[in-house]
Protein 1
Amino acid sequence: MDAGLFTANNVWMMLATALVFFMHTGFAFLEIGLTRQKNTINILFKNIFIITVGLLLYYAWGFNMMYPGFEEGSSGIFGFAGFGIDAPEGGMTPDYADGGYTWWTDFLFQGMFAATAATIVSGAVAERIKIGSFMIFTVIYVGLVYPIVGAWKWGGGFLDSWGFYDFAGSTLVHSVGGWAALVAIFLLGSRIGKFGEDGKPKAIPGHSIPLATAGVLILWLGWFGFNGGSVLSADPELTSLVLVTTSLAAAAGGVGAFILSTIMYKNMDLTMFLNGILGGLVGITAGADLMSPNEAVIIGLLAGFIIVLGVALIDKLKLDDPVGAVTVHLITGIWGTLAVGLFGDKAGAGQFMTQLYGVLIVGAFCVVSAFIILGALKAIMGLRVSKEEEVEGLDIHEHGMDAYPDFTND
Amino acid sequence: MDAGLFTANNVWMMLATALVFFMHTGFAFLEIGLTRQKNTINILFKNIFIITVGLLLYYAWGFNMMYPGFEEGSSGIFGFAGFGIDAPEGGMTPDYADGGYTWWTDFLFQGMFAATAATIVSGAVAERIKIGSFMIFTVIYVGLVYPIVGAWKWGGGFLDSWGFYDFAGSTLVHSVGGWAALVAIFLLGSRIGKFGEDGKPKAIPGHSIPLATAGVLILWLGWFGFNGGSVLSADPELTSLVLVTTSLAAAAGGVGAFILSTIMYKNMDLTMFLNGILGGLVGITAGADLMSPNEAVIIGLLAGFIIVLGVALIDKLKLDDPVGAVTVHLITGIWGTLAVGLFGDKAGAGQFMTQLYGVLIVGAFCVVSAFIILGALKAIMGLRVSKEEEVEGLDIHEHGMDAYPDFTND
Amino acid sequence: MDAGLFTANNVWMMLATALVFFMHTGFAFLEIGLTRQKNTINILFKNIFIITVGLLLYYAWGFNMMYPGFEEGSSGIFGFAGFGIDAPEGGMTPDYADGGYTWWTDFLFQGMFAATAATIVSGAVAERIKIGSFMIFTVIYVGLVYPIVGAWKWGGGFLDSWGFYDFAGSTLVHSVGGWAALVAIFLLGSRIGKFGEDGKPKAIPGHSIPLATAGVLILWLGWFGFNGGSVLSADPELTSLVLVTTSLAAAAGGVGAFILSTIMYKNMDLTMFLNGILGGLVGITAGADLMSPNEAVIIGLLAGFIIVLGVALIDKLKLDDPVGAVTVHLITGIWGTLAVGLFGDKAGAGQFMTQLYGVLIVGAFCVVSAFIILGALKAIMGLRVSKEEEVEGLDIHEHGMDAYPDFTND
């Protein structure tokens, strides 16, 4: 391979890595924007913790658990190697990954993905989880659960052998986070005031819709790298197709959610529009490289409908998910994974069943893991802050700080 | 062409696309920052609508109206093709666009431009337009007017044949938006309280100058892609020249507006400084590839002066443009287009006249189109919200939401 | 060199330039976030002034003072050339910089660095400096001091001949800014209310921790370009290594500061976590291309500890640095520069001493320069605003504007 092509590929992958990193700013804005100002510092703290600790854990062992993973004759379930000691021979040459990138780029791109799963949980459990419990959960979930599941498919494990397809992580990233979010909000219970005495849900409005909106736009931007980089090279045809399907699904998701929510609630709800965009993005992620633009629009549009119905369902189940994380990441993550069997180059009954098995196996593993980790934490140190702390806000109690002291201390 | 060069070109174009997409975050921040908090949700909603619907319209027919446009022997006025059905033969190879990018990249880059015209209008009409009327206007203006005008030059139509030059859209994007903004604020009238009983304009301060400032910095960043990508390849000499002229014009525009506004008003006005930067950017856009750095500084500096004078002129005309969109996008858009005849590689009396004809023809078409669309909407459903809604804010009335409930509901 | 490689290299360098430009948004958010709302416009104004004027000064003469700098037989102290008149012969070809980038890209990348030094000072002197004095200081410091010091190493001057190593500017950018910040806060004195009558420091909380947090994340993102671009080509091995060491040091710096501050103050302080990330970034900057990932983690972790101790030290010295700029940029800048002698490919006693000499010489020159400039300004026009202005806020007094009028005018 010539040096120009190798270099151009690696440039693309490094910039995709930068864009995925920037998604953490998007998540931070989205999560604080959709929650109350009294818990802002706490949410930001959790997100900063996740990015830094998540990357260090992935450096310490996650990357090697997930890749290269499986030696000849291994079980295909666990794999270790040793990042940081020595690059593999030829790791910096085109031999490493068909000239798509270097070993260092590989690590950093994947490391930026790793923290995302825990970030998804962070939004769902906001405004009531104990910071200590959340930090321990993050370390175990990002450090172990995420790379184990990742290895099953992207590390060349059994899901990969079966033909399960998940291009950039509708299941492997978004649902992995979403399942834990679901378990966590079930174990935590709803925020004080979320459900009235009649059992009806009450809106608890987020404190900064501008930041939430910016968060979604930044996430969309980041998805250029999340999906575009998952091509694992800068192949002009495939990367540009992926960007087109990704953006069209995002746009269609937003419009779908806007239309359905306006019909259902007679109200032009900006947060539904925004979550519809995210739903479209998560929905296209499993098959962004397989779909035509028309199929991407359909997948996105349906994801937008699913968002509106999913949010209503979560409310019906008396679960409290302040930012809609379960709907966005889990439900449309499942939708996107199954859509690979319904649309695009791999569509077919066999593929659909394989996708379904993949969803169920990953779901079972994540739910069980999350139950064990969070259940143990609940038993040992508790998951939830005191009633007093919840009412007064986690910022003052856990961090001794106020996010906007010039505006709230008057 | 070798694969490395094609790939590097396409990487540049895809990242330019990402940067142009990010400009929508910049516009959103700028527009809400310079208006009142009670209309924030409404402005964000309009912007999110524009991005998603604009992209889908461009996918449905805009791209094909604008490109490839003109078959042999066609009239050179309308052109259709059929995006989403099939890529043109060779659309993913270096044959498509001299190796500059793929057909998918082409679509997405141009699609990100398309929504910009309506976004410009969004700022000017803020705080008083009916959301329904605005949405219908956007669909027609982005869906039809923008690609028709674009086809005249970039699609190889008659303006192109005449030798009209507009590198990245001082006229084709910014003025197209600016003319509609001018018509719209004329038809809408000024906000309640903007002009006193004595007819003197009163400042209605924007609610978040930090977001407005971030918006301008993000727009400047986005212009790296807007102008840099308009080279339509990653040609090292031309792309790097374009980035230099773009940034120097931005800097000089800011400084020009700062100096003149400080002299005129004895006050160091941050929003003038910011609008001066935008003026410099819009001003250099028509000829960013033709100018030397020295010429870019002159064009930018004059654009900065024009901004200060233009804002005063709009006030004098008793027009109410909350974010200065007409001045920034229309007046400096005209200046930038004419500057191609005064400075740089194409300077000359003949070119100047061609530029002037282009400005006038595009202006006439946009003004007439905008009058027809907005006039019809005014007659049928009205353009302006009720007085009560305007006073209480559009957020509560149109969206049932508050942008900052923790701070305003006390 | 083939066109593909040259183009890919130049694409990387142009995007690195864009990322460094984006750092100014990060600095702006960080600085206003950590200070009070009444001084927000003033800080933003200073930052916008620095970016625009800094770039124009670098265009007018800074670039030529710093590069190419030294003709055969020159003193190696000053160098002039003439940007904007003519590109050097071959400046747009691979001959210019081993195919790493064009002359235009070179100028713009270095120009984006130039403004950073003054931006660092901006944070430290916030909330009490006269805007006029600050602007004059900026012009002289960015226009003269920065390029002179830069020429000593990056322009091929005497520090370079001695073997002093500073990959991306722990000393040449961050300490240059940090020394001036130190001198400035010494000459200015502390803000009213920072030290009680008992001499004990009191926290003056920043008004928007969300913006401060976003600022740090944007700075981290920008560092992908700051360090990654300092490779001066897109060499796959070296650029990807640099991104890995940079991100790991950032993560470790955050975690280090978090751990030590939690132990020392029994409080999970988000701003310490954030400054720890910045400390890790500044700390790795001098040797980002020389370190293994393990060494990067160690350097970052120690930088995180240094941040916590440094902030305590500055307080002890009764200096008032609202954003911690001296600790972040000067103290960890020194640490990073010395670390090149302790870790990585160049480690050794000789290198350590060379690094130390470099730190001291640059420090002496910057301190003396800053004392002369700021001392003269203090004598002639004063450095500090009136007591009344400081209490009421600089925004109203210097700019006649309020950053958040809808929230503060009630």
Protein 2
Amino acid sequence: MLDDVKDDALKRLNYLAGHLDGVRRMIEADAYCPDVLKQTYAVRKAISKLETRILEGHLNSCVAEGIRDGRQEQVVSELMELYDVANR
Amino acid sequence: MLDDVKDDALKRLNYLAGHLDGVRRMIEADAYCPDVLKQTYAVRKAISKLETRILEGHLNSCVAEGIRDGRQEQVVSELMELYDVANR
Amino acid sequence: MLDDVKDDALKRLNYLAGHLDGVRRMIEADAYCPDVLKQTYAVRKAISKLETRILEGHLNSCVAEGIRDGRQEQVVSELMELYDVANR
Amino acid sequence: MLDDVKDDALKRLNYLAGHLDGVRRMIEADAYCPDVLKQTYAVRKAISKLETRILEGHLNSCVAEGIRDGRQEQVVSELMELYDVANR
């Protein structure tokens, strides 16, 4: 993983762990379900944002190198497999 | 929140925190990006599953009671707001 | 289906058919793939919007009546099945 | 667009137009809302499948060529913009 992507990803994960812990405290304190759900939606959005950064880094490093090195079929089929898993 | 939903939600959150920590370790160990992304997709799926349980409990408690108590407009508009936030 | 929801849904479907036909013409004219994809994303968003209207009507009619008529278990399990199909 | 992708896309769009027309007939015939929604979900899934084919063709043609021709920054930023629009 590219260094700046890695640093950013670790910061986001640290924040996500805190966010998820906040959801746990809400549930323990019997918060209103719709309020809990709004927070879990926000956690999922934040994970999507993290994924966007990782994917962009992947395209700009492994995918671009793979295509230049004659491994287009491999890197594209990996991308399509990811896309498939993400939308399953 | 209904007691069994609350117990289940807390167990799921505990598992999710561990899963997210596993993602952090993968990134620190410079795992291959597509492998990291497959794990973050799995975390998001697990959060969706948690949301399904919370939503079901909410429909069977607050929403059903609200409709029987003449507060249909309020509980339905809350549901639609949630739906909107989830799909934004 | 409630009358105003039905009218609205038919108008939206009519518009959607035209939008989808526009996508077909773009593909026939060899439009740039990202431009085609932006249009198919827009079509899917428009279908989601249609679904929101139908779901809201359903909650305000069949679901609310079902709960008042003692068929809570049935209408909630139908909703959860829908939710499951939508997120599959 | 690659020829085989174009042929496949036009076939899928033709089928989609018929599916959408079926949804219109269901609504006109006052079908049960959950049954209508299951069909609109299926239409959206089918559009997603079409998008997968178009995206794969795009990666294997314009994106791969762009990267080999020194336009990596342009093709990757276009992909990320698409990704962003899709998840908005």
Protein 3
Amino acid sequence: MALVVQKYGGSSVADATCIKRVAQRIVATKKAGNDVVVAVSAMGDTTDDLLNLAEQVSPLPPARELDMLLTSGERISMALLAMAIANLGQEAHSFTGSQAGVITNATHGKARIIDVTPGRIREALDQGRIAIVAGFQGISQGTKDITTLGRGGTDTTAVALAAALEADVCEIYTDVDGVFTADPRIVPTARKIPGISYEEMMEMAACGAKVLHLRCVEYARRFNMPIHVRSSFSTKEGTWVVSDPYSEGTEMEQPIVSGVAHDRSEAKITVVGVPDKIGEAAAIVRTLADAEINIDMIVQNVSAAATGRTDISFTIPATDSQTALGALKKIQDQVGFESLRYDDQIGKISLIGAGMRSHPGITAKFFAALAGVGVNIEMISTSEIRISVIVAEDGVDAAVAAAHKAFDLDADEVEAVVYGGTGR
Amino acid sequence: MALVVQKYGGSSVADATCIKRVAQRIVATKKAGNDVVVAVSAMGDTTDDLLNLAEQVSPLPPARELDMLLTSGERISMALLAMAIANLGQEAHSFTGSQAGVITNATHGKARIIDVTPGRIREALDQGRIAIVAGFQGISQGTKDITTLGRGGTDTTAVALAAALEADVCEIYTDVDGVFTADPRIVPTARKIPGISYEEMMEMAACGAKVLHLRCVEYARRFNMPIHVRSSFSTKEGTWVVSDPYSEGTEMEQPIVSGVAHDRSEAKITVVGVPDKIGEAAAIVRTLADAEINIDMIVQNVSAAATGRTDISFTIPATDSQTALGALKKIQDQVGFESLRYDDQIGKISLIGAGMRSHPGITAKFFAALAGVGVNIEMISTSEIRISVIVAEDGVDAAVAAAHKAFDLDADEVEAVVYGGTGR
């Protein structure tokens, strides 16, 4: 008998019909002889509706109260799911994050899980029950306040519970069949990846692949918990995210490039004419850090000898642009730079593959593919298993398709893919 | 500095505008120099919406999960209320029933409060905060499951918190100006009662007066906690429910009759032709008790000497009629009664007044008033401070008005009253 943790997102439980279908799937897993724990998100648009209510009473609601408000969403979905399961003849109990022992720090809105003490969940399993746990939420260690985990929070809840319960697998149900070699909306010939390593998946998530969130994969890697990403609309095998998918004994051959990710959510800021003195770049980076803005890529041009000035370009989440520009203007006189240039019509293309470590020449082939479709590279950054470039936004689709083809990722046949979206 | 506990029902927080108005009232109370604790119900129709969702997934949802579901309603309203208060510049924290230390037994759907340990509430007050507490809910002592208190639950939460915190007063805000001598929709000349004793209020609540629930008044009496029932739409003094409103030093003179209550929610069942033997009535009553049906009034006719048979009539909540009739039919052969008669076109009129104890002749005057408007009395029951009669439903309005007039309760002027309704 295996212990299976399953996660269902908001689109999987959007209404009563969806909830009943998910209940059937859970009951089938239980009847197949498994112990089952389920982490569930709020129904469809619940979160948006609650945020809308909050806006009506306060322009800037306190984070503690916003968390209290939003966590009512999972309370509704998990109770309904437990009822639907009971209606199929299996006993199910629902548990809040607090009852499930999900202990977090006190950073409301994006709390981090620091411990999971699932005594009540284990007890429910011992009694033959299915345990339904509210995703996305926990309780802060010292202050015992309700917290939320931020985007992708329910994925993290599922993996953290699986790790604490020493589950055999954590199944993440979504509205696509798994992780693809590229976004099938851009590359119709994209293939489902049967297995991928934690490291590759983390790079994919960080580079714009939306199917799993970075924090959840980090958590899974730390506890070596296998994740099975699969569709809630079919019983097909999805994508296994594991420590070493290419180890001996498996049938998978390690590809050089596992996938091509893209991300249109960043913006580029160029600080023009920065005096080329020690400490000027540090002052700029410090200013952004103080404003709690994460810099993704950063490049500094070679200083022009005639002027003794240089340009510094970096990319940040486009949503932080106003904050970043405001903070930089405040230090213009102090740093002595000439002007700021802003561009949000950009996209990032990333090649990811553990095989890159042992294969030289990847970069050359990648750049040649982009040149072949007339796409100019504006910035470059690399890690051991990733190459990312910034290009103009109107070149993103062509660049992704070209790279996908160049590294032989195209499938012989186009698979049918259904798309939707879930935020938690 | 006083400690004030306030209760706001669902109609007082029906939407964002209502919540903001309630927030202003709370902040005004705080600014007047009081510590403030607020018990709040779910917004307007939330409970019905949630029940509707539950029905869609399961015809008979488990009580534990139904409680989990319904308690999300207060989680929403209390968080929004705390935000609205913060927006007015005061610090407020919201607390679930569990966080507020409302400990109940494990009877889901109608749990009883068995202890209140409001450590976190007291701490919040000590830090200068306003504490907003979810009404209607608690946590079960042994199993630590979320429970709900049933109808009028938020009133009970407020009084229980007030008692545990040794508050100076528990203010119950509603959509009428207080407790009236009769329902002003039937008797336009009804007066607001300035003060009433716990005992009288309990009789009023048990006899159909909807403004306060019986259990909340019982709780207040046990802890001698003054309740001030008042309108959330005005600043007028409402009705004080206290131990002795007519004690020396107060200006109130004890009336003989404090009020006339009525109740259309009961039905009458007559068991016809019961053999007049020892134990037959007991068997009937036992059957209903086993079906968890509360009998209100019961009368047994004098046995007809010729047949050796008698009729037994009783009243029960009309909603339990089908269950009661079914249970009785099952014992028809065993008891040997002839038939069942059912009538839900009835109403109960009750005169309530602590002054009845020392004034004879009340019953005669009451019955004369009813006879004067042609209303026939079908059943009678009395307590030390109450006389109740069952009449045909179409006589209820005339009977209430006649009794109200006979005992000089009519006001000189008609007060304007706004009506609405709240279930929790």
